[in-house]
Automatic annotation (TrEMBL):
Signal peptide: none annotated. Belongs to the GST superfamily. Tau family. One of its GO terms (biological process) is glutathione metabolic process. Keywords: Cytoplasm, Detoxification, Transferase. The keyword Transferase applies. The lineage of its organism: Eukaryota, Viridiplantae, Streptophyta, Embryophyta, Tracheophyta. InterPro entries: Glutathione-S-Trfase_C-like, Glutathione-S-Trfase_C_sf, Glutathione_S-Trfase, Glutathione_S-Trfase_N, GST_C_Tau, GST_UstS-like_C, Omega/Tau-like, Thioredoxin-like_sf. Residues 5-84 form the GST N-terminal domain. This is Glutathione S-transferase. It catalyses: RX + glutathione = an S-substituted glutathione + a halide anion + H(+). It comes from the Eukaryota.
């Protein structure tokens, strides 16, 4: 199977998990076709390519499907190994990158869904406190991983930059909706600086999710939900 043959990405552009794959493909300069798939409507396609979870993203490489965003990123790094390395080569650094990426997915980013569903008051404050606690952990992870360089991956955008960078746009949307900063200069100055760097980094800036565009997507989805509930 040719490495460059038949590379398709099944997913939806605003999805942070699809964006991870886009970022990895961009870093490796891999030509691919994005096939827009709505997980709520295109069940047949997902049943064919991802029958276990029926979720996006799915990378189809030479008719072989690979699912789960971070697994896909690792696959891309291993198959297209002649390009820039995404995962750290040092075993400890690699283990830490995998650990913190899993933390983002399993513990930290899900808090933003809770935040969306919470009302002002104790419930929202409790969720925000947990988000802040996680942000402090991630600030230290950045300091340890970057070793004084611009990115989690050091001089270049790496695995943890992709895992974290893909969710920044939606977190910026959350900041707008609640009228409160999540990425705080006092609590996470290194991460605030990192956001500026990754959004201006030539290798990925065109692939990063735009917060303003995402906000418009969110408003449109909310309007559709409201309209559906009224009928």
């Amino acid at each position: 199977m040719e490495k460059t043959s038949g590379v398709k990405l099944l997913g939806s552009h605003p999805s942070p998990f699809v964006n991870r794959v886009v970022l990895a493909l961009t870093i490796k300069s891999i030509h691919y076709e994005l096939v827009e798939v709505n997980p709520h409507k295109d069940g047949e396609i997902l049943a064919k390519y991802n029958p276990v979870h029926k979720k996006i993203p799915v990378l189809v490489h030479g008719d072989k499907p690979i699912s789960e965003s971070l697994i896909i990123v690792r696959y891309i790094d291993e198959v297209w190994n002649e390009g820039p390395s995404i995962l750290p080569t040092d075993p400890y650094d690699r283990a830490m990158a995998l650990f913190w990426a899993a933390y983002i997915d399993d513990k930290w980013f899900p808090l933003f869904k809770q935040l969306q569903g919470s009302q002002e008051g104790d419930s929202r404050k409790e969720t925000l406190d947990k988000i802040t606690e996680g942000l402090v952990f991630l600030e230290k992870a950045f300091k340890d991983s970057s070793k004084g360089k611009p990115f989690f991956g050091g001089e270049t955008v790496g695995y943890l930059d992709i895992a974290m960078g893909s969710v920044v746009g939606w977190i910026k949307v959350a900041e707008t909706l609640i009228g409160q900063k999540i990425f705080d200069d006092e609590k996470a100055p290194l991460l605030v600086g990192w956001i500026d760097k990754i959004y201006s980094e030539n290798s990925v800036k065109d692939a990063m999710l735009n917060p303003q565009t995402l906000l418009e997507v969110f408003k449109k989805l909310q309007a559709m939900k409201t309209e559906a509930a009224a009928t």
